[in-house]
Amino acid sequence: MQPASPEVMANTGMPKYRPRQAEKAAPCEAGCASGSDVRTWIGLVAQRDRTGLDREQAYTRAWHTITDANPFPSVLGRICPHPCEFGCNRSENDGAVAINALERFLGDWAIEEGLGLDVVDAEPKPETMGVIGAGPSGLSFAYQMARRGYSVTVYERRPMAGGMLRYGVPDYRLPPEVLSAEIDRISALGVEIRTNTTIGVDISVEDLRSAHDILYLGIGAQQPRMLGIPGEDGPGVFTGTDYLSRVNDGQIVEVGARVIVVGGGNTAVDAARVARRSGAEVALVYRRTRTEMPAIPAEVDEALAEGITLELLTGPVEVLRTDGNVTGLRAQRMRLAEAGPDGRLRPEPEPGAVFEIAADTVIAAVSQQPDWTALDGLDIREGWVATSDFGGMGGAMWAGGDVRGLDIAGSAITHGRRAAENVHAKLRGMPPPESRRSTPIEADRVNFDFKESRPPVHPPHLAVEDALRNPTAEPTATITEEEFLAEIGRCFSCGLCMGCQQCWMYCTAMSFTKVLNPQPGIYYTLSLEECEECGKCIEVCPCGYLEVI
Amino acid sequence: MSGLGQWTLGARRSIRHLAADPSPDSDATLSDGSRVAVIGGGPAGSFFAYFLLRLAHTIDLDISVDIYEPRHFTHCGPAGCNHCGGIVSESLVQMLATEGINLPPSVVQRGIYSYVLHMDAGSVEIESPVEEQRIAAIYRGNGPRTAVDMPWESFDGYLQQICEKEGAQLVHQLVVGLERNGDFPVVITNEGTTTYDLVAVACGVNSNFHMLLDGSTSEGKPEVSRTFITEFKLGADAILETLGDSMHVFLLDIPRLEFAALIPKGDYVTLAMLGEEIDDDLVRRFLDSPEVRAAFPADSIPAVCACAPVINVKGPERPFGERVVLVGDAGITRLYKDGIGAAYRTGKAAAETAIVHGISTDDFETHYFPTCRAIANDNMFGRLIFFFTIAVRKSKFVRKAVLRMTAGEQRRPKGRHMSGVLWNMFTGSAPYRDVFFNALRPGFLLGLAKSLAAGVRPPQKES
């Protein structure tokens, strides 16, 4: 790493490298969908010895830092595609810090220890909140409002809270008891969740409007899209969400010996793997190539390992039936043409290349849309509800989650939190919260030599036969405490001091002074009076925290 | 000069003695399975580790050595540098070869055949007195900032490699503390703590690690003096045109400046300065002086790297404690020059003490400290010589005489008294004592008297 400095001619002076302490945004935090302060919570554990915390105190503070933004660490630690790891500066070297696995460990630890969520402001507020839909977005909103002193009621049409987390994610990816444990903590803050309550049937929107000062719409996208091809109506054809929610509900769904799943997203992969666990041969049919599949790559890898086959560049043409029973899928070979308006390479049919794939069941997992039943008068654009950046729909209505457009659970949680922060600010007459994100620090500012090169933790995988034999068993385990501490030690704390002592150690001018009560990020004060301007401190700083003035 | 050999003879005898009777008399000794930590992977740490492991092998002692060095000498610029002018004498290179340390040409550059002494009275080139005493140049790290395609390898990095070949483990971690568990030293890093049987502290003086040491490990702190080193990127061809294959030493009457040298190294020129409070102004006055401009037109030459390392001018009173020993610059070193030679001697002496005698305070006091004292005593002669240098620098009359005498000597093959004194003062590893007594020889004194008498003006007090 070389700090930038203009070339200095010998007769005009010597090169000057005066240091300055400057915090920069971390790529993990910039990438985190749920908006968690990743560098901070990792630092609390990684630097516990330097800040005088024992393990339990460090874990506790780290967990409270996560749950400040995201009340579902154990859930997201399992199902999140972890965009936080994509930008990790270590990924260019020896692999990103396994942030997702770390979060899962802390989440499970907190459930085991029975930790409760933090209250921000216990003072009761007069306004009441109504939330439609107990999915990740609605529950995030409910949590953030409840911890600020508001009374919150959540209305959920299903028998249990959790939304897609409960009914869309298979149990092997997210054990229901983990989800329940994290929802129970939100309820413990006083949030009332009324299950089996359908809007328009059990209660009208007008009733909700009069009962609550603010209404938050978190209904998700529950309406699956069909393929729109001949033969899809009738027995033997399911949509992905329908199939998954029936299985998660405990129903026995007969799919036969051969199943075709159409789609390339996570729902498609989930449905394929659940069908595979019922003993069927499963083929995943997708119009583009593996590169374009939106599903989490690791999940696709695991699906392949479990014996699921990929039929890529394949478009469904017709569901074939004999005597009303599904016998297969007529398919069209596709090829990739230039990118369409969405920027993705557009599949187009290869003339004449039509073929058939035998199947007893076809599962269409191509897309979902919101179910607008009983919700009139909303501003709906291109199928999704229109809102401000923070979810405001005008007046007392707010919305978040998939109802604003399909995205991952972490984004739904962020929608809920941002809406809550803005609602709270408005109701209390405070200025709206500011977005604090800036361009994250890049890998060339990190001194990778400071830590030994070591690949990320690789949690043990269940053998494929065992995973298939136990349909609800998690294929990957939560990492052990030893692995957790080793992995957390891989973080370079990009952009913020981690107290490594190198600047202090190598500055013979003693420009750095240790602070009395160090905190993550705050270990030294810097005075330039005696500085020799050699720039060594800047070059040895592993974090890129020190920079040239 | 035979000084180096004399300094090490005693230890060789001890090893032979040990092979005959392997029973040290100390309570605290290294035994099979002992763990040794070396704090600092510069030359002193590496020499210590190398000799410790080599001696352990000769008596079939199975010990492990961890060398702690957080920095990588594959980096260019200050992060991978160990701050020094980078001059070693050919005699030291030969000495190391007899120890089995053969520095490859990629590490040691034997491109300097003479040095040029510049004074306001004129300049004189002094050829190396004997073929063996050429000057070799090294980069301790991987060269200055911006050096991307350095054809040279790091000297310190090479020494680490030979230690690894002997079985040492290189640990890339910063040591942030040294504590005790009973008698045993405990090394603390950011990753955890490890208890050792013996710790060698080779942290130099350009780290604040010595501030973390207490009375149980040593007594007193090294006294230091600040220097200034900068690197110019000039290009090999331009260097040959300006500086040639000579090291250039300047004794100029510029206030606060004691000494300065320009050392050609491949595409770069190293400027090393000794003086008080060296700042931009002093550096500019030096570069702008007519003597420097004549040899080295600094205009339009980019300065790529600058630092102000400190050097050890007086070691701690007691550079050892129970199971702890300070080697190299962290302990006792030679005044102003030949730090690597001192690292070699103290590192080797400490290693021999640990293997042959023991690792208690008494063992180091009896068997290691004499080596340190010998260096410290020699430094007293060094101080006397540098008083002389200051006199030369301050008096134009003496400067002229020195120049006249040296120039005259350089025209003849023998009787180069002044040349020899000057050579050994700025280069080489000869003890200062030898330099001093050479200067008291009749040939030198006679020559100096003649040269002084040849001055056009009568003797004056300092100008």
Q: N-to-C terminal Cα separation of chain B, in Å?
A: 36 Å
Low-confidence stretches of chain A: 1-6
The CATH class of the domain at 128-222 and 369-427 in chain A turns out to be Alpha Beta
Question: Largest sheet of chain A, order of strands side by side?
Answer: 5-4-3-6-19
Task: Name the helicity range of chain A.
Answer: 25-40%
3D shape of chain A: globular
Calculate Rg of chain B over CA atoms: 23 Å
Question: Strand count, sense and closure of the main sheet of chain B?
Answer: 8 strands, mixed
Distance between the termini of chain A: 16 Å
- How many extended strands of chain A? 22
Q: At CATH's second level, what is the architecture of the largest domain in chain B?
A: 3-Layer(bba) Sandwich
- SS element count, helices of chain A: 19
According to CATH, what is the topology of the largest domain in chain B?
FAD/NAD(P)-binding domain
Give the helix/strand class of chain B.
Answer: alpha+beta
CATH class group of the largest domain in chain B = Alpha Beta
Strand percentage of chain A: 15-25%
- Rg of chain A, rounded, reads 26 Å
Could you characterize what this model shows?
The complex is a heterodimer of chains A (549) and B (463). Chain A has 549 residues and is of the alpha/beta class. Chain A has a 5-stranded parallel β-sheet, sandwiched between helices. In chain A, strand 20 and strand 21 (522-526) form a beta hairpin. In chain A, helix 5 (73-79) packs antiparallel against helix 7 (99-113) and helix 12 (240-248) packs across helix 13. Chain B is α+β, with helices and mostly antiparallel strands and 463 residues long. Helices cover 38% and strands 22% of the residues of chain B. Chain B is built from 13 helices and 20 strands. In chain B, strands 5, 6, 13, 14, 15, 16, 17 and 18 form an 8-stranded mixed β-sheet that branches. In chain B, a hairpin with a 6-residue loop joins strand 14 and strand 15. The longest helix of chain B is centred in the last third of the chain and has 34 residues, at 361-394. Chains A and B meet through strand 1, helix 18 and helix 19 of A and strand 13, helix 6 and strand 17 of B.
